[in-house]
Amino acid sequence: MNPTLNPGALCGVRILDMATVLAAPFGATLCADHGAEVVKLELPDGSDPLRGLQPVKDGVALWWKVANRGKKGISLDVRKPQGKQLLLRMLSQFDVLVENFRTGTMDRWGLDEATLLQANPRLVILRLTGFGQTGPYAARPGFARIFEAMSGFTSLTGERGGSPLHSNFPIGDAVAGLFCAFSIASEMARLRGDPQARGCVVDLSATEALFRLLDPLPVEHEQLGIVRQPEGNCASYTAPSNMYISQERVFFSLVASSNPIFARLAQAVGRPEWIADERFATNPARVLNLRALDIELAAWFIARPYATIAETLETAGVPFSKVYTIEDIERDAQFAARKAIVRLPDPIYGSLPAPCIVPRVAGRDMPIPRTGPDVGEHNAEVYARFGIDADSLAALQADGVI
Questions:
Q1: Which of 14, 241, 266, 334 has its CA 20 to 30 A from that of 139?
Q2: Residue 299 is part of which domain span?
Q3: Mean pLDDT of 370-398
Q4: Are residues 49 and 156 in the same domain?
């Protein structure tokens, strides 16, 4: 089948994204990748903190451009009476409203759930906060590292006996964004299947989103009394699974969890006797004897150049990978063959590189989105849908509403 350009599975879904920074906007961006029309609503002063996060070049917020790709941008101060009324007027033409303000903020602006649903009874209001709309922490502010720490996620990182470690990327925001997109798609499926269905409020806690990833922790604690701790680059549930280093100090990750893969690894490193060794014959046994196994593996690897190690493991069919930087990704044949880096059209730079649309669908090519909009870039286009002409826009701008 020849691929054809396709508007995507979420074509026809209209999302008003009035969230700030990263988590909820990322969820809306994922929906835009798959065909949703997303309008990004900002305050007229362009004060979204994402516009100030690195990387910034010559005053241009590069992260903003790639994180908000595929969206049209409008400016509107919904805290002003005129702005509030204009928002409520627009909601009839949107399926989803995405916001991530601290609990109670929208209510103080006169934009409580009842008011929003009165404006559009089929509206899905997605509220993404650090801890949810209820509970003793509901009003607390939150950032990705707070979600990561509180969810239990960060407690699993770092060296044994040392400090837990955060990644140099806000994983908590990304995970919450994935749940945001999943929630939107789920609710759109519900509404499409029932013309009489009403809208709803989605209460998405970023902390709960991260905790949802950690399936075995509660049952492990209740049934076995185990509080899982950081193990460096090892895993306490499978072995061998670790970060190793070659002769010239190339770091690479290796996993040989299953018995057949471990047998191939043992043969490849010249230790076939490990296959029948009761310390290593099964995964539970290997986990119990991980230190002894790892000492010998690490010694074998550090005595050899990475090219030799890679050829040996590749031939044996053992899963491994060098720890890639972005430079390695840009040079790698697999990423290149699948065009995993796409170029987003941009009015300043011509184009900017960014990750491709995920997932792929057989027989379908998705249009490449353009970079995120400037503040109010599409005011004239979007507001024209509601009969607001150039003179009215100028008056609203003079009043600081847009």
A1: 14
A2: 241-324
A3: 96
A4: yes
Output b/e per residue, 158-188; b: 16+ Cβ within 10 A.
beeeeeeebeeebbbbbbbbbbbbebbbebb
267 in the same domain as 160: no
Q: What is the pLDDT of residues 182-203, one digit of tens each?
A: 999 999 999 999 999 999 999 9
pLDDT of 1 over the 50 cut: no
Question: Under DSSP, is residue 397 helix (H, G, I), strand (E, B) or coil?
Answer: helix
Place of tokens 């995964």: 283
pLDDT of 314 > 70? The answer is: yes
3-state class (DSSP) for residue 392: helix
48 given a catalytic annotation: no
**Number of domains composing the chain:** 2
State how far the Cα of 277 lies from the Cα of 286, in Å rounded to an integer: 10
Q: Residue 260 is part of a domain; what is its CATH number?
A: 3.30.1540.10
Q: Are 32 and 69 in contact (CB under 8 A)?
A: yes
Asked if residue 109 and residue 37 are part of one domain, the reply reads yes
**What's the burial of 295, exposed, middle or buried (CB within 10 Å: 0-12/13-18/19+)?**
exposed
Residue 36 neighbours by CB distance under 10 Å? 28
Task: Find the catalytic residue in 17, 77, 173, 374.
Answer: 173
Q: Is the pLDDT of residue 2 over 50?
A: no
**Whole-structure pTM value:** 0.95
